[in-house]
Specification:
Blueprint (H helix, E strand, L loop, with lengths): L8 E2 L16 E2 L13 E2 H8 L6 H9 L3 E3 L2 E2 L6 E2 L4 E4 L4 E7 L5 E5 L7 E11 L5 E5 L4 E3 L10 E5 L4 E6 L6 E4 L8 E8 L7 E5 L5 E5 L3 E5 L18 H13 L1
Antiparallel strand pairs: 1-2, 3-6, 4-5, 4-7, 7-8, 8-9, 10-11, 10-13, 11-12, 13-14, 15-16, 15-19, 16-17, 17-18
Length: about 260
């Protein structure tokens, strides 16, 4: 085996939600090591080239990144393979554009356009709660942040609203029945609904039952559930479909109505 980290990724092995075609090349940009897992992120270069169309190739993407024009979570990033994941805020100062990375109901990343005011914060899911040196409490979030001295009421699976300028917790939402959540993994990825109840399974995965605005309900693992706010009002704006999953027939009918107009 070769020593050191792998530097290459074949295009055919890239995650499907990157939406890369098979014939344009043999390789895909492998994400750098960072706050998100390889198969749960997308390199920032693909967002610039394939989604926003600000560049047409690898070299142009590199020029944009090295010009220090792109911020991720209010920090300038020059690595064009930097991994962007769920809830990350991407800002382009020259065009005064801000985007939040969210999922659609088919599991693909959506660059949801937001205001500069909303771009000043992000939601982070608390993964672990622990105490460090000299008994200082801290939480670790889904995007690799370590935040010291959290509110004593914050527990694992809760969501914290983080001010990106100061890295301080502004608000938090509990993992409780009745709160609005988004699904970040599994078959129901991208759907938004409210928690109905939780099944505890010691030694296995806890199962959470969720219902959306249309009355459709489903169950998923607790690790896939991301609380968006207290009550039924999310703390962030949502993409066009508001996390409601439509059947193939419903989608076809909507397309036919648009074509008829």
């Amino acid at each position: 085996m070769a020593r050191g980290p792998k530097r290459h990724l074949k295009r055919i092995a890239a995650p499907k939600h990157w939406m890369l075609d098979k014939l344009t090349g043999k390789f895909a940009p492998r994400p750098s090591t960072g706050p998100h897992k390889l198969r749960e992120c997308i390199p920032i270069m693909l967002l610039l080239r394939n989604r926003l169309k600000y560049s047409t190739n690898y070299a142009e993407s590199k020029v944009i990144m090295k010009s220090r024009n792109i911020k991720v979570d209010s920090k300038i990033r020059t690595d064009m393979r930097y991994p962007c994941g769920f809830q990350d805020v991407i800002s382009i100062e020259k065009t005064d554009e801000h985007f939040r990375l969210l999922h659609d109901t088919k599991g693909r990343f959506v660059m949801h356009r937001i205001t500069s005011q909303e771009a000043s914060y992000k939601l982070c899911r608390v993964k672990t709660l622990s105490t460090g040196v000299k008994g200082i409490p801290y939480v670790v979030t889904h995007d690799g942040r370590t935040i010291r001295f959290p509110d004593p009421l914050i527990k694992a699976n809760d969501t914290v609203k983080v001010d990106l300028a100061t890295n301080k917790i502004v608000e938090f939402a509990k993992f409780e029945v009745g709160n609005v959540v988004a699904i970040t993994g599994g078959h129901n990825v991208g759907r938004v609904g409210t928690i109905q109840h939780t099944e505890k399974h010691p030694g296995s995965h806890n199962i959470v039952h969720v219902k959306d605005k249309t009355g459709a309900s489903w169950a998923t693992r607790q690790s896939n559930v991301f609380v968006l706010g207290t009550g039924k009002q999310p703390a962030i704006s949502l993409p066009r479909n508001k996390g409601i999953k439509h059947t193939i027939i419903e989608e076809a009918n909507r397309r036919a109505q648009k074509a008829g107009k």
